[in-house]
Amino acid sequence: MSRSLLAPKPSSGCAVLFFGVFGVVGFLVVGGLTLRPAWQILRAQTWEAVPCEVVHSEVTSSDGETYAIDVRCAYRYAGQSYVSEDYDFRVGSSSGRRGKQQIANAHPVGSAATVFVNPSNPSQAVMNRDAGMYLLWGLIGVPFLLVPLVPWLTSRQRSSPLASRGGLPLYRDPSLVQLNPKITPRARFVGIAMLAVIWNAITWAAVLAFWSDMDACLFSFLGVFVISGISLLVGSGYELLRMFNPHPVLSLPDGDPVLGRNTTVSWVMQGNAARLRRLTLTLVGEERATYQRGTDSVTETHVFFTQELLNTTDGMQIARGSTTVALPADAAPTFDGGHNAIVWRIEVAGVLLNWPDVESHFPLTVFPESANA
After folding, report:
1. Which of 8, 35, 79, 270 would bridge with 155, disulfide CB 3.0–4.6 Å?
2. Distance CA 237, CA 233 (A)
3. What are φ and ψ of residue 253, in 5° steps?
4. How far is the C-alpha of 63 from the C-alpha of 71, rounded, in Å?
5. Which residues does 177 contact at the CB level (< 8 Å), separation at least 6?
6. DSSP letters for 101-152
Protein backbone atom coordinates (compact mmCIF):
# COMPACT_ATOMS: atom_id res chain seq x y z
CA MET A 1 0.00 0.00 0.00
CA SER A 2 1.24 3.49 -0.80
CA ARG A 3 0.19 6.64 1.02
CA SER A 4 0.80 10.23 0.04
CA LEU A 5 1.30 12.84 2.74
CA LEU A 6 -0.23 15.43 0.44
CA ALA A 7 -3.66 15.15 -1.04
CA PRO A 8 -5.66 17.48 -3.26
CA LYS A 9 -8.52 19.28 -1.64
CA PRO A 10 -11.81 18.46 -3.29
CA SER A 11 -13.41 21.43 -4.94
CA SER A 12 -16.95 22.52 -4.11
CA GLY A 13 -19.62 24.15 -6.22
CA CYS A 14 -19.47 27.32 -4.10
CA ALA A 15 -15.72 27.60 -4.58
CA VAL A 16 -16.06 27.15 -8.34
CA LEU A 17 -18.73 29.87 -8.42
CA PHE A 18 -16.71 32.20 -6.20
CA PHE A 19 -13.49 31.93 -8.19
CA GLY A 20 -15.41 31.82 -11.47
CA VAL A 21 -16.91 35.26 -10.81
CA PHE A 22 -13.41 36.73 -10.62
CA GLY A 23 -12.52 35.03 -13.90
CA VAL A 24 -15.59 36.47 -15.62
CA VAL A 25 -14.87 39.98 -14.30
CA GLY A 26 -11.26 39.71 -15.48
CA PHE A 27 -12.36 38.54 -18.91
CA LEU A 28 -14.82 41.43 -19.27
CA VAL A 29 -12.23 44.01 -18.21
CA VAL A 30 -9.44 42.65 -20.41
CA GLY A 31 -11.81 42.07 -23.30
CA GLY A 32 -13.49 45.46 -23.08
CA LEU A 33 -10.44 47.63 -22.47
CA THR A 34 -7.75 45.80 -24.45
CA LEU A 35 -8.87 42.92 -26.68
CA ARG A 36 -11.85 44.62 -28.32
CA PRO A 37 -10.05 47.94 -29.03
CA ALA A 38 -7.02 45.99 -30.29
CA TRP A 39 -9.26 44.01 -32.68
CA GLN A 40 -10.88 47.26 -33.89
CA ILE A 41 -7.44 48.80 -34.49
CA LEU A 42 -6.45 45.75 -36.51
CA ARG A 43 -9.61 45.95 -38.62
CA ALA A 44 -9.22 49.70 -39.14
CA GLN A 45 -5.89 49.20 -40.91
CA THR A 46 -7.88 48.36 -44.08
CA TRP A 47 -10.32 51.27 -43.77
CA GLU A 48 -10.24 54.04 -46.35
CA ALA A 49 -8.61 57.41 -45.63
CA VAL A 50 -11.02 60.28 -46.32
CA PRO A 51 -10.50 64.07 -45.86
CA CYS A 52 -12.62 65.65 -43.14
CA GLU A 53 -13.18 68.93 -41.28
CA VAL A 54 -13.06 69.20 -37.49
CA VAL A 55 -16.41 70.50 -36.23
CA HIS A 56 -15.94 70.04 -32.49
CA SER A 57 -12.81 69.79 -30.33
CA GLU A 58 -12.54 69.75 -26.53
CA VAL A 59 -11.63 67.66 -23.49
CA THR A 60 -14.62 66.69 -21.38
CA SER A 61 -14.89 65.58 -17.76
CA SER A 62 -17.91 64.33 -15.86
CA ASP A 63 -16.32 64.28 -12.42
CA GLY A 64 -13.34 66.65 -12.61
CA GLU A 65 -10.88 63.77 -12.13
CA THR A 66 -11.13 61.74 -15.34
CA TYR A 67 -11.10 63.13 -18.86
CA ALA A 68 -12.10 62.11 -22.37
CA ILE A 69 -11.23 63.33 -25.85
CA ASP A 70 -14.22 64.78 -27.68
CA VAL A 71 -13.08 65.55 -31.22
CA ARG A 72 -15.62 65.24 -34.01
CA CYS A 73 -15.20 65.66 -37.73
CA ALA A 74 -17.52 65.90 -40.73
CA TYR A 75 -16.80 63.92 -43.90
CA ARG A 76 -18.42 62.66 -47.06
CA TYR A 77 -18.31 59.09 -48.30
CA ALA A 78 -20.06 57.66 -51.37
CA GLY A 79 -22.06 60.87 -51.75
CA GLN A 80 -23.35 60.85 -48.17
CA SER A 81 -22.46 63.18 -45.30
CA TYR A 82 -21.39 61.81 -41.93
CA VAL A 83 -20.00 63.03 -38.61
CA SER A 84 -17.51 60.89 -36.71
CA GLU A 85 -17.65 61.20 -32.92
CA ASP A 86 -14.69 58.91 -32.21
CA TYR A 87 -11.12 60.15 -32.20
CA ASP A 88 -9.77 56.63 -31.60
CA PHE A 89 -10.91 53.32 -30.07
CA ARG A 90 -10.31 54.07 -26.40
CA VAL A 91 -13.17 53.28 -24.02
CA GLY A 92 -14.49 55.78 -21.49
CA SER A 93 -12.43 58.39 -19.68
CA SER A 94 -9.22 58.25 -17.67
CA SER A 95 -7.03 60.44 -15.48
CA GLY A 96 -4.52 62.83 -17.01
CA ARG A 97 -5.77 65.89 -18.88
CA ARG A 98 -2.57 67.28 -20.43
CA GLY A 99 -2.06 64.63 -23.11
CA LYS A 100 -5.71 64.71 -24.12
CA GLN A 101 -5.67 68.50 -24.24
CA GLN A 102 -2.67 68.36 -26.58
CA ILE A 103 -4.70 66.20 -28.97
CA ALA A 104 -7.66 68.58 -28.84
CA ASN A 105 -5.36 71.59 -29.42
CA ALA A 106 -3.83 69.87 -32.44
CA HIS A 107 -7.28 69.60 -34.02
CA PRO A 108 -8.97 73.02 -33.69
CA VAL A 109 -12.47 73.52 -35.03
CA GLY A 110 -12.40 74.23 -38.76
CA SER A 111 -9.07 72.54 -39.40
CA ALA A 112 -8.64 69.89 -42.08
CA ALA A 113 -7.80 66.34 -41.08
CA THR A 114 -8.05 62.73 -42.24
CA VAL A 115 -10.57 60.20 -41.02
CA PHE A 116 -10.50 56.44 -41.62
CA VAL A 117 -13.87 55.10 -42.76
CA ASN A 118 -15.20 51.57 -42.55
CA PRO A 119 -16.27 50.78 -46.15
CA SER A 120 -18.89 48.27 -45.01
CA ASN A 121 -20.33 50.73 -42.50
CA PRO A 122 -19.50 54.33 -43.59
CA SER A 123 -20.99 55.79 -40.41
CA GLN A 124 -18.14 54.20 -38.46
CA ALA A 125 -14.89 56.14 -38.64
CA VAL A 126 -11.96 57.24 -36.49
CA MET A 127 -9.30 59.89 -36.86
CA ASN A 128 -6.57 57.80 -35.20
CA ARG A 129 -6.28 54.07 -35.89
CA ASP A 130 -2.88 53.58 -34.24
CA ALA A 131 -2.37 51.50 -31.10
CA GLY A 132 -1.90 53.61 -27.98
CA MET A 133 -1.00 53.32 -24.31
CA TYR A 134 -4.70 53.15 -23.48
CA LEU A 135 -4.66 49.50 -24.54
CA LEU A 136 -2.73 48.74 -21.34
CA TRP A 137 -5.75 49.63 -19.20
CA GLY A 138 -6.97 46.08 -19.68
CA LEU A 139 -4.03 44.88 -17.57
CA ILE A 140 -5.99 45.73 -14.44
CA GLY A 141 -8.23 42.78 -15.28
CA VAL A 142 -5.38 40.26 -15.47
CA PRO A 143 -5.21 39.68 -11.68
CA PHE A 144 -8.92 38.78 -11.75
CA LEU A 145 -8.24 36.30 -14.55
CA LEU A 146 -5.55 34.66 -12.41
CA VAL A 147 -7.73 34.22 -9.32
CA PRO A 148 -9.38 30.99 -10.66
CA LEU A 149 -5.87 29.45 -10.71
CA VAL A 150 -5.65 29.69 -6.91
CA PRO A 151 -7.62 26.50 -6.08
CA TRP A 152 -5.81 24.62 -8.88
CA LEU A 153 -2.48 25.67 -7.39
CA THR A 154 -3.21 25.29 -3.67
CA SER A 155 -5.00 21.94 -4.03
CA ARG A 156 -1.67 20.42 -4.98
CA GLN A 157 0.24 22.00 -2.12
CA ARG A 158 -2.03 21.75 0.90
CA SER A 159 -1.31 18.85 3.18
CA SER A 160 -4.19 16.65 4.17
CA PRO A 161 -4.77 16.96 7.92
CA LEU A 162 -3.21 14.23 10.05
CA ALA A 163 -5.13 12.84 12.99
CA SER A 164 -3.46 14.06 16.16
CA ARG A 165 -3.72 14.16 19.93
CA GLY A 166 -2.24 17.15 21.70
CA GLY A 167 -0.41 18.15 18.51
CA LEU A 168 1.30 14.74 18.12
CA PRO A 169 0.53 12.62 15.03
CA LEU A 170 -1.33 9.31 15.38
CA TYR A 171 -1.78 6.18 13.26
CA ARG A 172 1.69 5.57 11.94
CA ASP A 173 1.65 3.84 8.54
CA PRO A 174 4.17 0.95 8.55
CA SER A 175 3.89 0.44 4.78
CA LEU A 176 5.58 2.30 1.94
CA VAL A 177 5.14 6.06 2.27
CA GLN A 178 5.53 8.26 -0.81
CA LEU A 179 6.77 11.75 0.08
CA ASN A 180 5.63 14.80 -1.85
CA PRO A 181 7.58 18.07 -2.07
CA LYS A 182 6.33 21.02 -0.07
CA ILE A 183 6.03 22.93 -3.33
CA THR A 184 6.54 21.66 -6.86
CA PRO A 185 8.56 23.52 -9.52
CA ARG A 186 5.35 24.12 -11.44
CA ALA A 187 3.61 25.62 -8.43
CA ARG A 188 6.63 27.79 -7.66
CA PHE A 189 6.67 29.06 -11.24
CA VAL A 190 2.93 29.71 -11.29
CA GLY A 191 3.11 31.53 -7.95
CA ILE A 192 5.95 33.84 -8.98
CA ALA A 193 4.48 34.35 -12.46
CA MET A 194 1.11 35.31 -10.95
CA LEU A 195 2.81 37.77 -8.61
CA ALA A 196 4.80 39.18 -11.54
CA VAL A 197 1.68 39.63 -13.67
CA ILE A 198 -0.33 41.24 -10.86
CA TRP A 199 2.56 43.53 -9.87
CA ASN A 200 3.23 44.62 -13.45
CA ALA A 201 -0.46 45.03 -14.25
CA ILE A 202 -0.96 47.42 -11.34
CA THR A 203 2.36 49.19 -11.96
CA TRP A 204 1.79 49.77 -15.66
CA ALA A 205 -1.80 50.82 -15.05
CA ALA A 206 -0.40 53.51 -12.74
CA VAL A 207 2.23 54.47 -15.32
CA LEU A 208 -0.49 54.73 -17.94
CA ALA A 209 -2.74 56.79 -15.67
CA PHE A 210 -0.03 59.41 -15.06
CA TRP A 211 1.77 59.13 -18.40
CA SER A 212 0.61 62.45 -19.83
CA ASP A 213 1.36 64.30 -16.57
CA MET A 214 4.61 62.52 -15.70
CA ASP A 215 7.35 64.59 -14.06
CA ALA A 216 10.85 63.62 -12.89
CA CYS A 217 9.78 62.94 -9.31
CA LEU A 218 6.86 60.71 -10.28
CA PHE A 219 8.99 59.01 -12.94
CA SER A 220 11.59 58.10 -10.31
CA PHE A 221 8.93 56.86 -7.88
CA LEU A 222 7.17 54.63 -10.41
CA GLY A 223 10.53 53.55 -11.84
CA VAL A 224 11.26 51.62 -8.62
CA PHE A 225 8.07 49.61 -9.09
CA VAL A 226 8.80 49.06 -12.78
CA ILE A 227 12.27 47.69 -11.98
CA SER A 228 10.79 45.43 -9.30
CA GLY A 229 8.25 44.16 -11.82
CA ILE A 230 10.99 43.39 -14.33
CA SER A 231 12.88 41.51 -11.60
CA LEU A 232 9.79 39.41 -10.90
CA LEU A 233 9.49 38.59 -14.60
CA VAL A 234 13.13 37.51 -14.66
CA GLY A 235 12.52 35.42 -11.55
CA SER A 236 9.52 33.71 -13.12
CA GLY A 237 11.65 32.93 -16.17
CA TYR A 238 14.26 31.40 -13.86
CA GLU A 239 11.60 29.22 -12.24
CA LEU A 240 10.31 28.25 -15.68
CA LEU A 241 13.74 26.80 -16.45
CA ARG A 242 13.61 24.85 -13.18
CA MET A 243 10.51 23.05 -14.41
CA PHE A 244 12.66 21.24 -16.95
CA ASN A 245 15.11 20.00 -14.32
CA PRO A 246 15.27 16.34 -13.32
CA HIS A 247 13.20 16.12 -10.15
CA PRO A 248 13.51 13.75 -7.19
CA VAL A 249 10.93 11.23 -6.04
CA LEU A 250 11.41 10.18 -2.40
CA SER A 251 9.84 7.31 -0.49
CA LEU A 252 10.14 5.60 2.88
CA PRO A 253 9.98 1.81 2.27
CA ASP A 254 9.75 1.10 6.03
CA GLY A 255 6.85 3.46 6.55
CA ASP A 256 6.73 6.60 8.67
CA PRO A 257 9.98 7.17 10.62
CA VAL A 258 10.04 6.62 14.40
CA LEU A 259 12.48 8.14 16.87
CA GLY A 260 15.07 5.67 18.11
CA ARG A 261 14.65 3.35 15.10
CA ASN A 262 16.35 3.00 11.75
CA THR A 263 14.44 4.13 8.69
CA THR A 264 15.23 3.80 4.99
CA VAL A 265 15.04 6.71 2.57
CA SER A 266 14.91 5.87 -1.16
CA TRP A 267 15.16 8.26 -4.09
CA VAL A 268 14.75 8.17 -7.85
CA MET A 269 15.57 11.11 -10.13
CA GLN A 270 12.94 11.47 -12.83
CA GLY A 271 14.17 13.06 -16.03
CA ASN A 272 17.71 13.23 -17.34
CA ALA A 273 19.68 12.53 -14.14
CA ALA A 274 22.95 12.64 -16.12
CA ARG A 275 22.65 16.46 -16.13
CA LEU A 276 23.26 16.53 -12.39
CA ARG A 277 26.84 17.06 -11.25
CA ARG A 278 26.17 16.58 -7.53
CA LEU A 279 23.24 15.46 -5.37
CA THR A 280 22.81 15.99 -1.62
CA LEU A 281 20.06 14.86 0.73
CA THR A 282 19.85 16.34 4.22
CA LEU A 283 17.50 15.46 7.07
CA VAL A 284 16.50 18.57 9.03
CA GLY A 285 14.52 19.00 12.24
CA GLU A 286 13.27 22.50 12.99
CA GLU A 287 11.42 24.16 15.85
CA ARG A 288 9.03 27.02 15.11
CA ALA A 289 7.52 29.44 17.60
CA THR A 290 4.93 32.06 16.72
CA TYR A 291 4.10 34.93 19.06
CA GLN A 292 2.72 38.46 19.04
CA ARG A 293 5.06 41.44 19.07
CA GLY A 294 2.77 44.42 19.41
CA THR A 295 0.32 44.11 16.53
CA ASP A 296 2.62 41.90 14.46
CA SER A 297 2.74 38.12 14.42
CA VAL A 298 6.36 36.93 14.51
CA THR A 299 7.64 33.42 13.77
CA GLU A 300 11.11 32.36 14.88
CA THR A 301 12.78 29.14 13.78
CA HIS A 302 15.60 27.05 15.21
CA VAL A 303 17.20 24.05 13.52
CA PHE A 304 17.89 21.49 16.26
CA PHE A 305 18.88 18.53 14.09
CA THR A 306 20.80 18.15 10.83
CA GLN A 307 22.15 14.99 9.26
CA GLU A 308 23.55 14.61 5.77
CA LEU A 309 22.09 11.50 4.16
CA LEU A 310 23.84 11.75 0.80
CA ASN A 311 26.52 13.83 -0.87
CA THR A 312 27.67 12.29 -4.12
CA THR A 313 28.91 13.02 -7.60
CA ASP A 314 28.50 9.41 -8.72
CA GLY A 315 26.06 9.24 -11.62
CA MET A 316 24.55 5.88 -10.61
CA GLN A 317 23.94 7.02 -7.03
CA ILE A 318 22.45 10.26 -8.29
CA ALA A 319 19.98 8.43 -10.53
CA ARG A 320 18.60 6.19 -7.78
CA GLY A 321 19.53 4.76 -4.43
CA SER A 322 18.65 4.39 -0.77
CA THR A 323 20.21 5.00 2.61
CA THR A 324 19.43 4.19 6.22
CA VAL A 325 19.20 6.82 8.92
CA ALA A 326 18.96 6.31 12.68
CA LEU A 327 16.79 8.95 14.29
CA PRO A 328 17.95 9.80 17.83
CA ALA A 329 15.55 8.69 20.54
CA ASP A 330 15.96 11.95 22.47
CA ALA A 331 14.90 14.18 19.55
CA ALA A 332 11.45 15.77 19.33
CA PRO A 333 8.81 14.13 17.11
CA THR A 334 6.60 16.00 14.67
CA PHE A 335 4.36 18.34 16.64
CA ASP A 336 1.84 21.05 15.80
CA GLY A 337 0.50 22.98 18.75
CA GLY A 338 -0.65 26.03 16.84
CA HIS A 339 1.84 28.60 18.13
CA ASN A 340 4.61 26.02 18.49
CA ALA A 341 5.60 23.31 16.05
CA ILE A 342 8.29 20.73 15.36
CA VAL A 343 8.72 20.05 11.65
CA TRP A 344 10.96 17.53 9.90
CA ARG A 345 11.95 17.57 6.26
CA ILE A 346 14.39 16.13 3.78
CA GLU A 347 16.14 18.79 1.73
CA VAL A 348 17.26 17.75 -1.75
CA ALA A 349 19.81 19.86 -3.64
CA GLY A 350 21.19 19.10 -7.08
CA VAL A 351 23.88 21.03 -8.96
CA LEU A 352 23.56 21.46 -12.73
CA LEU A 353 26.01 23.08 -15.11
CA ASN A 354 24.90 26.45 -16.52
CA TRP A 355 21.32 25.88 -15.39
CA PRO A 356 19.17 26.60 -12.30
CA ASP A 357 19.88 24.05 -9.57
CA VAL A 358 17.46 21.49 -8.15
CA GLU A 359 16.01 22.54 -4.78
CA SER A 360 13.18 20.61 -3.13
CA HIS A 361 11.97 20.16 0.45
CA PHE A 362 10.02 17.04 1.42
CA PRO A 363 8.07 17.29 4.70
CA LEU A 364 7.81 14.06 6.67
CA THR A 365 6.06 13.00 9.85
CA VAL A 366 8.36 11.66 12.57
CA PHE A 367 6.61 9.63 15.25
CA PRO A 368 7.58 9.21 18.94
CA GLU A 369 8.99 5.92 20.19
CA SER A 370 5.59 4.91 21.49
CA ALA A 371 4.08 4.87 17.96
CA ASN A 372 2.51 1.66 16.72
CA ALA A 373 4.85 -0.66 14.83
Report:
1. 8
2. 6
3. -60, -30
4. 19
5. 2, 3, 5, 251, 252, 255, 256, 364
6. HHHHHHS-TT-EEEEEEETTEEEEEES--S--GGGGGGGGGHHHHHTTHHHH
